[in-house]
Amino acid sequence: MSSRKSKSNSLIHAECLSQVQRILRERFCHQSPHSNLFGVQVQYKHLSELLKRTALHGESNSVLIIGPRGSGKTMLINHALKELMEIEEVSENVLQVHLNGLLQINDKIALKEITRQLNLENVVGDKVFGSFAENLSFLLEALKKGDRTNSCPVIFILDEFDLFAHHKNQTLLYNFDISQSAQTPIAVIGLTCRLDILELLEKRVKSRFSHRQIHLMNSFGFPQYVKIFKEQLSLPAEFPDKLFAEKWNENVQYLSEDRSVQEVLQRHFNISKNLRSLHMLLMLTLNRVTASHPFMTAIDLMEASQLCSMDSKANIVHGLSVLEICLIIAMKHLNDIYEEEPFNFQMVYNEFQKFVQRKAHSVYNFEKPVVMKAFEHLQQLELIKPMERTSGNSQREYQLMKLLLDNTQIMNALQKYPNCPTDVRQWATSSLSWL
Amino acid sequence: MAHYPTRLKTRKTYSWVGRPLLDRKLHYQTYREMCVKTEGCSTEIHIQIGQFVLIEGDDDENPYVAKLLELFEDDSDPPRKKRARVQWFVRFCEVPACKRHLLGRKPGAQEIFWYDYPACDSNINAETIIGLVRVIPLAPKDVVPTNLKNEKTLFVKLSWNEKKFRPLSSELIAELNKPLESAAKCQKPVGTKSKSVESPSWTPAEHVAKRIESRHSASKSRQTPTHPLTPRARKRLELGSNPQMSRQTSCASLDSPGRMKRKVAFSEITSPSKRSQPDKLQTLSPALKAPEKTRETGLCYTEDDKASPKRCIILRTRIPAWKTMDIKEERILTPIRGGQKSSVMPSVILKPENIQKRDAKETEAQNEATSTPHRIRRKSSVLSMNRIRQQLRFLGHSKSDQEEKEILPAAEISESSSDEEEASTPPLPRRTPRTVSRNLRSSLKSSLHTPTKMPKKSLKPKTPRCATPQIRSRSLAAQEPASVLEEARLRLHVSAIPESLPCREQEFQDIYNFVESKLLDHTGGCMYISGVPGTGKTATVHEVMRCLQQAAQANDVPPFQYIEVNGMKLTEPHQVYVQILQKLTGQKATANHAAELLAKRFCTRGSPQETTVLLVDELDLLWTHKQDIMYNLFDWPTHKEARLVVLTIANTMDLPERIMLNRVSSRLGLTRMSFQPYTYSQLQQILSSRLKQLKAFEDDAIQLVARKVAALSGDARRCLDICRRATEICEFSQQKPDSPGLVTIAHSMEAVDEMFSSSYITAIRNSSVLEQSFLRAILAEFRRSGLEEATFQQIYSQHVALCRMEGLSYPTVSETMAVCSHLGSCRLLLVEPSRNDLLLRVRLNVSQDDVLYALKEE
User: Which residues of A fall within a CB distance of 8 Å from B762?
Assistant: First the structure.
């Protein structure tokens, strides 16, 4: 009886959990404009006032939103646009053009995209725009036609603004100086993570830019970080199963007060204030939740955190063969002896031979071609890197290489290496002692 | 029957009274008064400026009403034409049917509306004037009198601007009242007694009968020698008794019910059709093949593809001209010609001219607005005319006779006479009836296609070829500034065009003098203007060109063509040729072809042409390896025939020396001008001139901004932007929305800080703990090695040590690498591409002191 009850319970849980996972994953992965903004109220107000002035008064503006990756630039502009579009008299009257520097890699493509998004193609009918020049003059003509009071304001959103600054002559950006003349009102909003963006602008373009910058700096402290953590995990009030939602939220509250959880969060916070990395951590934690294990625990979080902070190189080293480990240790010793000077295969092989002949008991004395093969494998894994580009005629044995592993990395990897022969480990720890 | 004298088979002689006055531009001779003698009814009407007149229209019962503003003789064409400028009134039946409801009440029978539509052509042929009428303005509260006995009096109470009815302003009423008194004074004694005392002066000549006799004897060709005097007399009587034309009264008073009905129906059909005109052209033109010079010229006009309003005007002028000519040349005319004429004449006079008048109205009003009495070409009307013409070809003439009778029931006399004439003049037997019936038919037809051609629509010709792109216009107009701060912000926007450009008077004068002298001398030249961005180079040149264009309009300087190209708005330097050619001639060509065409235009001896002023902005972008573009641009003005003035603008003062080849810079010449960055007092002056009479800023606040900007760049744009931002900050900080905002020094300080402060330090302060310790590790490594560059591996070891010291958990390489690339993406660090992994080299993008300062604060 009780087992049946628990089974039905778990069934309900399973249903709820799939919903929970859907909701939370959506929250972590999409930048939905519905989520809350954290600590950017001032910037938000600045931006939305600016947009409103463009939309309602027909005032042309330009602004740059600057902030490191994951600081919520796109979310900020999406929020502002959403709020703007909710105003009745605005929604009919504003045109939006979204451009991304990664997609519109030159001005020609960008102009085509602008024409498309403004639906200007229809006006021209079957006229085909062959050249870039025609396109530009066409668009400028179109924008020149309007005036402040009667034309629809156009909001240009340039994602990855710094990439637009690399276009030839910055023609597109210069021509946004229509925002400085009495033509169709436009607002140019650039999103970038580069703090030195103004130095990228050509002097004429720079003079025409209004020098308005909105900085997003993730300027919150740890207590707020914990609060964000809590908010991100909590279920909304409109969740269908109220009972479950209540329980879930209670658990989240309990988690946020847990000491070990706070430690994990603190560590994460120290590494990066980026909310995206927090999302990543929470996503990994969420994936551990199952029907039999319906609520997150501190241990889940810690394991997810370990996954996040895992050293990728060390992981590769764990999968190497003993011979390859030996070669890496030989390289490490060479580095120690010659103070970071590059080495070649022959040197590594000699070092390995010395070790096998003098110290090794368990390691088999491989033939040179086999060792060469292992060496090439390491190169393919990019644990070692050739100093120059490989040319056909040079002998591979004598090509100079550099090790891309730090000593500490090697030692840590060795400690965790499964079934590591003791003599190899001793060789690694000993410094030049066998000489 | 209340028909206007147009109905009569009369000829009117129009002659000036008084001495001509020369117009201010010496183009026209203007007159104060005109005398109209009506042949046959022996009346003579004196029409003075300021009086209200009836003007021939398509609807005979409702001729157009207008106020005469000016009488002048147009001697631009060989046959001098008497022209008049009028202010139109509209009758209620002329208001488009779909807009009639806007009045909101039943119009008075004699109510007319002041036609307040500037796009209406007010320039008419004086010989279409029928006679005088009385117009009484009413104050808004007055009621339009109804059932007035005097049908010659019209009432105006409202104005109609094609959109809505508005009450007349008091000045307008006063102005309208004025001519009334003066007209009363100068009226000649009224001969035929009309019911109304105020009726316009139809002065009958004493020698009417004699005249008629002589006339008939003179025109030997006339096949109506038996023309009885009685009908004519009757007509005159009619004319005298109730010339006033309101449909209902006229019909009721005179006609049998059946006929009245027919007539009303007809007028209802015809009235909405605004396009019946052009066909007249076709029907007329064959008749106009007569070997008279005037008609020939008229035909020339109609044949070429001038705009239809022009054509219409010509048509209209032609008809009366024919009349006058008729009278003048009567004696020398051959019998056949005379007969022909007499057969054509009545129908011509009676022809409905509704559309013509519409079009004429439009164009003339435009002319009035621009104060140049030239007509405007319109393609759309040409198109529609062609269409109508085509339709006409398919129309038969079967019902012409009956229809004509229906249409012109009242014109018994003229009709009968014309019928007689037709019978006797076989060469052109059916000219008259056909003309009229065709008119009717086509008007019906065209009314189906173009039910109501509002003048507004026809003003913007939408030819498919020149489909110009346009951002769609907003459905809701932009809000106007509500507060002082908003107003200030609007004025401070860079796009706001100031009335004057303060602090650039000297430069303005220099450029103006340069261009003006070249224009006056009919030579060419180059000028090079340099200056850092935001010093008003382009604005000053634009201002100069604006002034010169005004001067050219006032004939102070010879007319010139102004072209502007911008190097930044070109995708490629050679496109400059394409742009210049397109703006110069409208042609489109490839870059190479355009270059050839331009070279041909500027370098070969051609017909004398007007000077071209070419502004080349951002000259440095036209640099090519061969410098052929710059060479050409500076070479063309040296040709004598080119008459090209080239103004070039660039940022750098030494551009000619630095990048130009010798042969190019030599052609550029030494006319150089450099715009210095604005000093703080100049910036202050600019700001205060923009904020004239607007108390939005404290003086100190302006001064602070001006000083800050002058110290940094002297860029006026920056100055304006900062002030604009300051108003926003002021608005934000303001708690009460109703208190008048005043931008204080604190606000502008904040704005200045916002715009000029470096964000690096805040960025470092807000970065995470590991990022900060990584920066410290970099500093430590730099100090250790004494270099400004380190590999990631070196920094990493420092970083690990630092973390151990500070009790932070051990950072793995992956984490540290993430931190490093994060800092790199913000450009706090300059890093190599990350494929170098441990070996990538790292540099600081900020000075070490800044980093130390930022890290130490905590």
Answer: 215, 217, 219
Please give the share of chain A, as a percent, with pLDDT higher than 70. Answer: 89
- Per the structure block, which two tokens stand in for B160? 């109609």
pLDDT at residue A22 greater than cutoff 60 = yes
Cβ pair A385:B837 closer than 8 A: yes
What average pLDDT does this structure show over B320-339? 41
| Chain B residues close to A314, C-beta within 8 Å | 812
Q: Which of A150, A219, A272 sits opposite B822 (nearest CB)?
A: A272
| Whether residue A252 is found in the same domain as residue A289 | yes
Does the distance separating the beta carbons of A120 and B469 come in below 8 Å? Answer: yes
Return the bridge partners of B568, or none: none
Question: Chain B contact for A45, CB < 8 A?
Answer: yes
Exposed / middle / buried, residue B430 (Cβ in 10 Å: 0-12, 13-18, 19+)? middle
Instruction: Fold for B12-177, please state it.
Output: SH3 type barrels. (2.30.30)
**Residue B711 sits at the chain A interface (C-beta within 8 Å):** no
- Tell me: pLDDT of B136 over 80: no
Give the pLDDT band of residue B384 (cuts 50, 70, 90).
low
For B329, the token pair is: 């040349």
* Band of residue B62 on the pLDDT scale cut at 50, 70, 90: confident
- With respect to residue A435, please indicate whether it lies within any of the assigned structural domains: no
Q: List, for residues A141-174, the tens digit of each pLDDT value.
A: 777 776 767 778 889 999 999 999 988 888 888 8
Q: Among the three residues A215, A247, A270, which one is the final residue of a domain in this structure?
A: A215
CB contact under 8 A, A152 and B809: no
Chain A 189-218, residues with CB within 8 Å of chain B CB atoms: 193-196, 203-204, 206-208, 210-213, 215, 217-218
**CATH number at B759-855:** 1.10.10.10
What is the homologous superfamily of the domain B504-674 according to CATH? P-loop containing nucleotide triphosphate hydrolases (3.40.50.300)
Give A271's contacts in chain B (Cβ within 8 Å): 768-770, 811, 815, 818-819
Backbone region of residue A58 per phi and psi (left: phi > 0; alpha: psi in -120 to 50; beta: other values): left
pTM of the model: 0.62
Contacts of B759 in chain A (CB under 8 A): 66, 195, 213, 215
- pLDDT at residue B152 above 80? no
Structural domain boundaries enclosing A362: 314-429
Regarding whether A207 and A132 lie in a shared domain, the answer is yes
Q: Give the separation between CA B326 and CA B218, rounded to whole angstroms.
A: 12
The number of folded domains in chain A is 3
In this prediction, residue B450 has a pLDDT band, given cuts at 50, 70 and 90, of very low
Q: In B586-715, which ranges are continuous DSSP H helix?
A: 591-603, 628-635, 655-659, 662-668, 680-690, 699-712
Q: Do A207 and B533 touch (CB under 8 A)?
A: yes
Considering the domain architecture, whether residues A264 and A285 belong to the same structural domain is answered as yes
| Separation in Å, CA of A48 to nearest CA in chain B | 12
What is the average pLDDT score of chain A? 83
What is the rounded CA–CA span in Å between residue A94 and residue A78? Answer: 15
Provide the percentage of residues in chain B whose pLDDT is more than 70: 55
Q: Does one domain contain both A345 and A295?
A: no
Do A210 and A350 sit in the same domain of this protein? Answer: no
Q: Evaluate whether residue A134 is within a structural domain.
A: yes
Q: Are residues A70 and A202 in the same domain?
A: yes
B575 in contact with A at a CB cutoff of 8 Å? yes
**Interface ipTM:** 0.90
What is the reported pLDDT for A158? Answer: 92
Q: Do the domain assignments include residue A168?
A: yes
Q: Does the residue A35 lie in any domain?
A: no
pLDDT bin (cut points 50, 70, 90) of residue B733 is confident
- Interstrand relation of B611-617 and B644-650 (parallel, antiparallel or unpaired): parallel
Tell me how far apart the alpha carbons of residues B779 and B852 are, in angstroms, rounded to a whole number: 8
| CA–CA dist A198, A209 (Å, integer) | 9
User: What stretches of B763-849 adopt beta strand conformation (E)?
Assistant: 790-791, 829-831, 841-844
CATH number at residue A326: 1.10.10.10
Given the structure tokens 């509209």, which residue do they identify? B90
Contacts of B586 in chain A (CB under 8 A): none
- At A164, which CATH number? 3.40.50.300
Residues A254-272 have a mean pLDDT of 89
Residue scoring higher pLDDT (B354 or B154): B154
| Domain end point (choices A198, A215, A232) | A215
Residue A178 pLDDT: 62
